[in-house]
Automatic annotation (TrEMBL):
GO cellular component terms listed in the entry, alphabetical order: Noc2p-Noc3p complex; nuclear pre-replicative complex; nucleolus
Homology family: Belongs to the CBF/MAK21 family.
Residue intervals passing through the bilayer: none
Domain Nucleolar complex-associated protein 3 N-terminal, chain residue ranges per copy: 131-223
UniProt protein name: Nucleolar complex-associated protein 3
Biased composition (Polar residues): 19-31
Subcellular location: Nucleus, Nucleolus
Keyword Coiled coil: yes
Region (Disordered): 1-125
UniProt GO MF annotations: chromatin binding
Keyword terms, alphabetized: Coiled coil, Nucleus, Ribosome biogenesis
Organism of provenance: Drechslerella stenobrocha 248
Keyword Nucleus: yes
GO process terms (BP): DNA replication initiation; pre-replicative complex assembly involved in nuclear cell cycle DNA replication; ribosomal large subunit biogenesis; rRNA processing
Amino acid sequence: MAGQSNSRKRKVSQFLKDQGTNGTSKPSQNGKAILNGKADWDDEQDYERRARKGRKKSDKQEPQRLPIKTLEGKVVQLRVAEEEVEHQSPGSDDDDQLLEGAEPSGSDDESSLEDAAPPPPKISERQRIVEAKEEFANIASSINEEPEQNYPMLRKLQELFDNESSAAIRKLALLTQVSIFRDIIPGYRIRPLTAEEQAIKVASDVRKLRNFEQSLVSSYKTYVDTLGRLSRAVDSQLSPVAISCTCALLNTVPHFNFRQELVKIIVERLSSQVVNEAFVKCRNALEDFFKEDESGTGSLEAVRMIVKMLKAKDYHVHESVLNTFLSLRLLAELNVKASYDSIDQPTQKMKVKDRIPLTKKEKKALKEKKVVDAQMKEADAVVAYEERERNQSETLKTVFTTYFRILKEKKAALMGATLEGLAKFAHLINVEFFADILAALRELVEDAQQEVDEEQDANDDASEASLRERNLRREALLCIVSAFSLLADQANEAKGLVNIDLSFFTTYLYSVLLLLSLSPTIELSSKSLHLADPTSAEPVDIPRSNVNKATEIEMLLRSVDVVFFKAPRGTGEISSARVAAFTKRLSTATLQLPEKSCLALLTSLQNLNKKHSRKVRPLYVSDDRVGDGTYDPFIDTPELSNPLTGGAVFEHALLANHYSPKVREQSKLVLKSAAAR
């Protein structure tokens, strides 16, 4: 311990010896203090203030972010801008000043920093969508739980939609509103209150219900107007959502207010010839609306809007718009008395032991009440039936007026749909219109004949393009079906009083049988997958089916069916020469047809032989009749072809060697049916 104290005393004495008398350091030769034989520590300031070489930009470590993967599947390396790096560098002077708590240079700067509020935090789009979903869900739950108390939230939801700029959140608002309205809309129509009704004092419950109903109608009107405005903006992202909401409202609450506005939105969308997802959705919604409409009032309004739109567009619309008329309920409900007479169901009598004893006065009152209830029930049923029949009659009149105008003006795009509609509504057409309809159908068949004749000229490119565009041959077959169906239904109702000759349509059907059998697209429709012939320079165009996507063989079978099996009584009996000529030509056509078409036509031949066995027997058994002349297979008039003289049906001998066993078996059945007496 003594040694340590001596060493300390020596160090202190040596330090005091080096100090001057005034307590300063000993000056050196260059004027600087020397401490323990060394220069003062201020010499380091010169080195600190000396200029240094800047680091090259290439030497800096280039900041990077994590790589991302694009929608195309490529991996892209993101790089951070230099300004952002310098701003975010932890060693900057500004950061050091803030961390060290250095005071600003002036009092004004200090006051400005104190007064400036911190910027609001930026929320990502995804976070905003999540928060909007939660808010919309809470609003919807509150309204559904107590709609009569929380109906003001409907206006709040509309304000959120109007003030929002994000398209995704606006879509959510539209979908939330449509779901709310579908749940809280009552099952009746709300009418506006009159001034007298508003002046009457009512109970609190009634006043509460009235306030809710009026507010609901007002909010619903605002929402429907918004849907109409958005649906007209085709380029907008909200247009498909608005169309979907409109269709949902029309199918779920068609009884409520502003039904015409919803139908108007859908009809305006159907006026476009661009068939997309929104167009198909509107068309399906309109068809479902026609099928579910019981009173017929909504259907009448929709049909009138469609007809008005067709006139405004000069009938330049897609054919499927006209096909929506086939979904009207008047096809099955107009003129059905059986269902009206069977409304009242028989009730079971109450047993004696279950009867409650009543006094004479109570029995008399109960009896009078039953009479009054029966009369009221009958009166309500009659009014409903009469109103429905009146609406459906007006709808039918509007539809027929449209069909007749299309036939007279020969609108090519809608001709097939019109003919199919006439065939469907044939049993509802008045006899007074028969002459005009048949004249229009005959003109169409004549146009088809003329086009077929011009088609044989290879240089006439325009006629070939017209035939492919309109498919007049198919329209002619539809004319035949429409004409015979028209008279078949009405002749049965009129008990044979309709005497109209339809031989013109039968002759045309006979003339196109061979041409149809040679058609390569007889079993194809516009929906069929078909590849072009690689060895042919010109591709084969599939005929565009106008209605129901039926093929040519289906239309041919329908035509044969209405001519020979469903012909009206007033058209007269079919002659033997005509039946024999058709039998011969149908047998010839089976040799050229594919397997399925051949089987279908052989089945029609078998039924024809069974129904007209005596008329076709000479074609199969030559001993029954002897005739003069020769058979002409190329003439287009069946009565002039002379089929009963040497026109034996030898085609079945060739069909006996057909590659298909089903065809061989069906051919044997045809021969068997013809030989049977």
